[in-house]
Specification:
Helix content is 37%, strand content 20%. With 240 residues, it is of the alpha/beta class. It has one domain: Spore Coat Polysaccharide Biosynthesis Protein SpsA, Chain A. Strands 3-2-1-4-6-5-7 form a 7-stranded mixed sheet.
């Protein structure tokens, strides 16, 4: 595409004023020498997140900042970033600093391993979360995997690499980011997994609760299962 780059890193954030500056610098350092851009999507923050990001643009010329006029959720933030991205390859990570940008090159290597690999998802090792959150995640992943058959053990890891065109062909709905693996597989593509580092949050608070995730996940699971059963798979198309 015009003015394109090889890689776009997309990071949705909300009220992460204390985390964004070190995270931007870490991403830029991890991708030194690579043709890339960094897109932060401020999802209606009410703190100084937007100002902190704008102040970094002179220091990090690869940085682009987009802002939602109101809070629309993590999935919409990812979608906004992918739509605006100039790269054919997208990397996403959470804006709280718990994903380690140093792991990005590992995901890119795995993504380039074969033409049928459309997504590489990180699997967090030694998660730095509370015991209750780890337990809720483990139970949720087992239930989701049993219902959807995606075989994933850590769909909640925000660190992912995928092909932009594949993502844009997926059906969109809020909370889509939790089901990216199952939906990419639905399209007939392969998903690979890479163990990645997980770090403690340094500032701010999580935007999710275990109960809140449970409420939305139950109905979303049924919706994704419906999507799986109402699709006949990817087809090769030729113009005759």
């Amino acid at each position: 595409m015009p003015g394109g780059v090889a890689l776009s890193v997309v990071v949705p954030v909300k009220d992460e004023a204390g985390n964004v500056a070190p995270l931007v610098r870490e991403i830029a350092a991890a991708l030194t020498g690579q043709d890339h851009e960094i897109l932060f999507i401020d999802d209606g923050s009410s703190d100084g997140t937007a100002a902190a990001l704008t102040a970094l643009k002179a220091e990090i010329p690869q940085l682009r900042v987009l802002r939602h006029g109101r809070n629309l959720g993590q999935s919409r933030g990812i979608r906004t970033g992918v739509q605006a991205a100039r790269g054919e390859i997208i990397v996403t990570l959470d804006g709280d600093g718990q994903n380690d940008p140093a792991d990005i090159p590992k995901l890119l290597t795995a993504l380039a391993a074969g033409p049928d690999v459309a997504m590489v998802s990180g699997v967090r090792v030694k998660r730095q979360d509370t015991a209750s959150r780890r337990l809720a995640s483990r139970l949720g992943n087992r239930f989701r995997s049993a219902l959807l058959g995606d075989g994933a053990t850590d769909t909640g890891c925000g660190l992912k690499a995928f092909r932009r065109d594949v993502f844009l062909n997926l059906p969109y709905f809020d909370h889509l980011h939790r089901f990216l693996i199952a939906l990419v597989q639905r399209e007939g593509w392969k998903v690979s997994y890479v163990p990645v580092n997980h770090r403690p949050r340094l500032t701010g608070t999580s935007k999710y609760t275990n109960f809140g995730r449970l409420l939305v996940s139950a109905q979303d699971l049924l919706g994704v299962r419906w999507l799986q059963r109402r699709y006949r798979g990817r087809a090769d198309i030729r113009e005759l």
